[in-house]
């Protein structure tokens, strides 16, 4: 008679043999960005509220920025799907880094939900690149933009990079949606 909670030795042996027959790294889950095709209203509201609060802070500052990082002559829809994912991953890297900077206490609290969402999206994108296109080389368009991003990180102040990332937050979200839509993004 088997007791609840008791695992017979045969079951342990079977589980161990299946584990070696199907190694865990071979059971990778597929890439799914479906949840980013249509963002839920409370996430969008939190993003909008944070952006508006930041704009109010900007009005009171004397920041002079010329960063044109998010001004491009092409749209993400013109890129291949792996390029779109790389683009958004880079945009999210910048945005999450900037949202992680020390800030006014009221802004620190307001950015927590958007930062958590954007960080999760970045991790999901990284997972997709690792499973679907680990050796992908960016197109010339994307490579040029990535170089522009690296140069901006070296030459722009943290304040200007922060302003650029937050003020263009909805462009990043649209780029994320395009990456999630895959071939259906037009």
Overview of this protein structure:
This protein has helices spanning 9-21, 41-60, 81-99, 105-110, 112-132, 140-155, 158-167, 169-181. It has a domain at 78-184. It is built from eight helices and no strands. The protein has 186 residues and is mainly alpha-helical. GO terms for molecular function: cytokine activity. Keywords: Antiviral defense, Cytokine, Secreted, Signal. InterPro entries: IFN-lambda_sf, INF_lambda.
Can I get a quick summary?
This protein is mostly helical and 186 residues long. It is built from eight helices and no strands.
Structural shape:
globular
Mean pLDDT: 85
> Radius of gyration, Cα only, in angstroms?
21 Å
Helical fraction equals 55-70%
**How far is it from the N-terminal to the C-terminal residue, by CA?**
63 Å
Order of helices and strands: HHHHHHHH
Number of strands: 0
Strand content: under 5%
- Backbone structural class: mainly alpha
The number of helices is: 8
Biggest sheet statistics: none
Low-pLDDT residue intervals, each spanning 5 or more residues? 1-28
Signal peptide: 1-21
Subcellular location: Secreted
InterPro entries: IFN-lambda_sf, INF_lambda
GO molecular function: cytokine activity
Write the layout of secondary structure elements.
Layout: H1 9-21, H2 41-60, H3 81-99, H4 105-110, H5 112-132, H6 140-155, H7 158-167, H8 169-181
């Amino acid at each position: 008679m088997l007791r609840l909670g008791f695992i017979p030795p045969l079951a342990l042996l079977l589980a161990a043999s299946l584990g070696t027959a199907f190694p865990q790294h071979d059971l990778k889950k597929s890439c799914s960005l479906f949840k980013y095709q249509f963002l839920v209203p409370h996430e969008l509201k939190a993003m909008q509220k944070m952006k508006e609060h930041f704009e109010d802070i900007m009005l009171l500052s004397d920041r002079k920025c010329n960063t044109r990082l998010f001004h491009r002559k092409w749209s993400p829809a013109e890129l291949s799907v792996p390029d779109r994912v790389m683009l958004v991953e880079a945009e999210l890297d910048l945005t999450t880094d900037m949202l992680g900077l020390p800030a006014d206490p009221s802004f620190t609290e307001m950015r927590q939900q958007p930062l958590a969402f954007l960080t999760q999206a970045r991790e999901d994108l990284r997972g997709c690149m690792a499973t679907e296109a680990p050796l992908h080389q960016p197109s010339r368009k994307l490579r040029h933009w990535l170089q522009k991003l690296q140069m901006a990180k070296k030459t722009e102040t943290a304040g200007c990079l922060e302003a650029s990332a937050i003020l263009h937050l909805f462009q990043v979200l649209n780029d994320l949606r395009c990456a999630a839509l895959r071939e259906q993004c037009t």
